[in-house]
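Exercise 7b. C-alpha cells:
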C-alpha cells in the first residue's frame, strides 16, 4: 500500500485534483530515492483517486487501460520527503483521453507526466466506445502540458536482456499485468552497477501494445542503436511474449 499524507482534494481550479505521498523507507531504491517504479505507482494512484473523487464510472464489463505515457523528472525525491501530485484531464480525442500530472516537493516542481488511456471491454478484450458527454465539466482546456507521449516502434532483432514470467503479484484489477510492472522489469534487466552508480534518469516513455497475463513469459530486450547528444542518451527497451513473439510494450529511457 502507498502511504498517503492527507486526503485528496480539489484545488482552486475545480478541474485539478491533488494528492500527497510520503516517501517511506520501503519505497526508496538503492540510491535512497523514490525511483521510477515508485513514482509511476504514485501517478497511477492519483489518477485513480481523481476518478473516484469525480465519480467517474464505466458501464459494467468495461475497464480503463493505459496506452502511452511519458514522465520527465528534474529531481527524484528522497526518503521522508512528501511528493504532491496535481492532475487533470484534457478533452478526449476520439476514444483516447490524456491526463496531465505535475509533481512537487518542498513547493518546487520536480517533474511532469502525460498519460493516454482508453476503455476496454473486459470480456472481448477489445477497445470499447465511451460516451464522454457526462464528464465534460472535467476537461481542462487551459494550462495543459505541452507534450504528448509519442509512438515508439517495436524493433525486430533486438538484444534480449532477461525473461520474466508473469506472477500473481503482477496482475491488477483488469486481470493483466499492471502498467508499472513493465518499468520494474526494465530496471531488473539492467546491470546493478549501472543502477547504483550510473547516470541519472531524466525521462521515461512507454507504449503499451498488448496485454500480458498470468504465466506468460516476456522477453525484455534492448535495441543496440542509441540516440546520443552531448548531455543525453536515449536507450530503447521492448518486450515480446515468447509464446507467439507478439510485441507487448516499447519504452525509452532518457539518461543524463
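Sequence design result:
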Amino acid at each position: 500500500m502507498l502511504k498517503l499524507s492527507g486526503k485528496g482534494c480539489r484545488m482552486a481550479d475545480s478541474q485539478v485534483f491533488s494528492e500527497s505521498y510520503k516517501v517511506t523507507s520501503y519505497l526508496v531504491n538503492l540510491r535512497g530515492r523514490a525511483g521510477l517504479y515508485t513514482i509511476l505507482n504514485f501517478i497511477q494512484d492519483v489518477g485513480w483517486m481523481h476518478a473516484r473523487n469525480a465519480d467517474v464510472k464505466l458501464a459494467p464489463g468495461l475497464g480503463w487501460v493505459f496506452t502511452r505515457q511519458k514522465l520527465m523528472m528534474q529531481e527524484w525525491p528522497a526518503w521522508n520527503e512528501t511528493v504532491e501530485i496535481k492532475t487533470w484531464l484534457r478533452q478526449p480525442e476520439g476514444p483516447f483521453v490524456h491526463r496531465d500530472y505535475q509533481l512537487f516537493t518542498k513547493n518546487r516542481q520536480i517533474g511532469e507526466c502525460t498519460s493516454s488511456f482508453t476503455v476496454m471491454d473486459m470480456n472481448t478484450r477489445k477497445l470499447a466506445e465511451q460516451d464522454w458527454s457526462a464528464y465534460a465539466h472535467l476537461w481542462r482546456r487551459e494550462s495543459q502540458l505541452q507534450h504528448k507521449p509519442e509512438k515508439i516502434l517495436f524493433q525486430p532483432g533486438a538484444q534480449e536482456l532477461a525473461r520474466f514470467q508473469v506472477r500473481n503479484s503482477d496482475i491488477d484489477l483488469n486481470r493483466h499485468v499492471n502498467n508499472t510492472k513493465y518499468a520494474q522489469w526494465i530496471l531488473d534487466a539492467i546491470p546493478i552497477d549501472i543502477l547504483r552508480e550510473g547516470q541519472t534518469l531524466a525521462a521515461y516513455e512507454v507504449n503499451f501494445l498488448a496485454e500480458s497475463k498470468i504465466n506468460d513469459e516476456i522477453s525484455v530486450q534492448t535495441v543496440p542503436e542509441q540516440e546520443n547528444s552531448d548531455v543525453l542518451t536515449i536507450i530503447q527497451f521492448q518486450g515480446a511474449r515468447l509464446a507467439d513473439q507478439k510485441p507487448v510494450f516499447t519504452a525509452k529511457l532518457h539518461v543524463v
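Instructor comment: Helices lie at 36-53, 179-189, 192-197. The longest helix spans residues 36-53.
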